[in-house]
Amino acid sequence: MQLTLVDWLVFCSYFFVLALLAWWVNQKRAQNSSDYFLGANTMPAALVAISVLATSQSAATFLGGPDLGFRGNLSYLASNIGAVLAAFFVMRFLIPRYYALKVTTVYELLEQRFSASAKSHAGQMYLFGRVFASGARLFMAALAVSMLLFNHIDASGVMISVALLAGIGLLCTMAGGIRSVIYTDALQCVVYVTAALVVLVYLYNSLSLPWPVLLEALRHPLEQDGSKLLLLDFSVDFSSSGVFNIWSALTGFVLLNIAAFGLDQDMTQRVLTCKTPQQGAKALLSSALLVIPVMLIFILIGFLLYIFYQRADLHQGSAMLADSFQGEKVTVFMYYVLNELPSGLRGLVVVGVIAAALSTITSGLNSMASVLVADLYAPWWRKRQSAGVAQQSAGSERHLVRAGQLAMLLTALALSLMAVLCYYWQQYSDMPLLAFALSVMVFSYSGLLGVFFTALFTRRGNSRSVTAALLTGFGVTLVLQPYVLQQISPTLAALDLGFTWQLCLGSLVAFLVCVSGSPAKVAADALATSR
After folding, report:
1. Is 478 a residue whose pLDDT tops 50?
2. What is the DSSP string of 397-422?
3. Residue 258, class by beta-carbon neighbours within 10 Å (0-12 exposed, 13-18 middle, 19+ buried)?
4. Least confident segment among 296-310, 363-377, 457-471, 515-529
5. 397 pLDDT exceeds 70?
6. Cα dist from 192 to 39, 45, 144, 162, 195, whole Å
7. Integer Cα distance of 520 and 348 in angstroms
8. Alpha carbon of residue 362 to chain centroid
9. Do residues 373 and 404 make contact, with C-beta atoms less than 8 angstroms apart?
């Protein structure tokens, strides 16, 4: 497969519109760190909701969502019950606190509650997990772009694709900060959802099957237990294959989304750009609800791909998956794009993959840069400048904007190196990269959840117990990984605990460790001041 002139026209048109939007947004340069990282709290709630939606999606969703529908059922959508419940929790307990404290990063709450070191260590834990998660997503996007642009996934094509995606992400966001991210996110979301809808319509029309026939084939799939239309899975299964049952949705997925919406700077930063906490809460809830129809589109594509390839007896085509098809490196959706889509549509899917990837890359660049500057660099810098604050405050703010831009450049380099590492790591590992990308943040989330629950609902804990809880949450999650259990004991290796249950256990242990610390003096002073 090679891209045709029509495909390249679609491709170039997209980049022209993206460049035009980035130029327009960047006309207003950020004057201080609040403007650069929070958009001066002037962003519309509707635009923020779309940005949060785009951030929650990625190339892994664009390519892996149809694969999920092809191999599974609708039960993944039930996990969004947990997302909606988590959104209400974050709206009630976290967003008002963040706005009241006027934070730049969510980890500043820990400084007020515990100490500056608690904020620093939480930020470092976030950065550690985000480099792995966003780097893996960048690699998966580069894999798809390399296949679609160069018709191979050799090292050279993947490296060029990594550099292309990281470079475009930097150009879109480096000058304007979070304002650029939110506006370009909105464009990326429209592009990749449109691409998915066009493919869905084209695939449905190519099958030329009436709805009753399609529904019957999905209710009784060949070589698969149960209906593909199953939405609520009430089976009791704690293994990796059972992470989308209703019990997981009401426990682990609630925790996962509390962490994603309220403790992960990647998403929460967008919510903090609204003018009021009420608008931020509205944006968050809207994005949690919008995920459901968007994800349904990708799953429906997977359902139709199942009919297209596995039920050729029902339609005119004779398409079959080749024996050489590798479902891990080339998803069934990518296989379909490479072999079946006509010119023009193929270019639109390339654009969709890039748009989904860029929405994740740009948000990661800005959020990681905000933590590096606001939580790690700025305290050191302001301490050095404390002697001449009145005379140098404006210059210091401009300096922090430049520091944010440099941090974004370093972050892009780190994500690119991680993506390259993933390329070589996958050559020697049997672990599915998609599963790795989706679950890797659990390593960071376990400790962060334990620490934030301690800060919100108890008066206990101190900087030492915070650090211990962060490390314990990471350690518990690490020990529960099959490849670690195998080293401990072959018998324990049979314990295949789903990542949502790993999160529940890791968060509980981290919480117990954090509350074991005596009340922090910072917290006591803060309580006395508030009274």
Report:
1. yes
2. HHHHHHHHHHHHHHHHHHHHHHHHHH
3. buried
4. 515-529
5. no
6. 25, 21, 14, 19, 5
7. 55
8. 11
9. yes
